[in-house]
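Quick start: read one record
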Amino acid sequence: MTRRVLPYRVPAEDVVTPEPWRLVVEDGEVVLPEALPDWDYQMDVHVRRTLHVDLDGVRWQTGLSANAALMLSVVWTATGSNLSGPAQHVRLAEAGTSTVEFDVRLRGADLGGLLLLDTALVLAERMNDARPSSPRRAGSVLWSDREALRLQGDAPQFPMAVIDFARTSFPNDAAWHLQITGGLESATMGALLLLVNEQNTVTATAFQNAGKPRPVDRVVLSAVKADTARIMVEHALAHDEFVEDADFPDGSLGATLLGLFDQLFPGQSITDIRLRHRQSPALFSSDLQAAVKIFEVSS
């Protein structure tokens, strides 16, 4: 087991007493679960947390002056979208024990995959007169912790929009359309867009209810998931550079398609699947249905 050693003194862990992150739901608040099985990109994530900080203890144990300014901050990272950013920060300049409450709402369109919430107590300002063993640079981390929330659901895990197909070049009676733009090196979040026809009430309603889907909604969402997977795999197979040893940048469309391929066809080569798609498209379609477990009821 390795432990990072910082070039300055840090306080004991008990100078910060964190309460658990809480997820804000319709009926109130619950302790943050490990995963949200019914999450989709239209669902924002609203979380709260309270922490108690012994400011005198922090300063004394690190050798900082009594007026050293500290800061508690929360930073979020979403592995599915490769996006991150500051959520909230609170400056702490007083003495004694300070109680800090965080209230963070994150847009569902910015999230996906694993949501990481990093909380840190840092030095707010540079301390030019600090002792040699004390932290002196602004941003020096004195305490931190991390909480993870897995976002997974029946809806496709990329951006989507509900529009009127009558105002587009798409067939008026089509239910959805997966739009793929750019090459395999393009960023996934900018290359994929699922368009849902608002005039198709069954499909549009299914996405509106993705947080708490009814049986009919689950059937529709499963069909969309299977169809988007088929389109994405076929799009990948159409590119000669889509091969096992391809080195696509992290967060790129190519990397996403490789990940999807490995998930759907574990242990099978891209060459074999490409040949099957060309020589027996009906068998390929059946294999894909089995891989995505179409219409399977989630446990």
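The longest strand covers residues 113-123.
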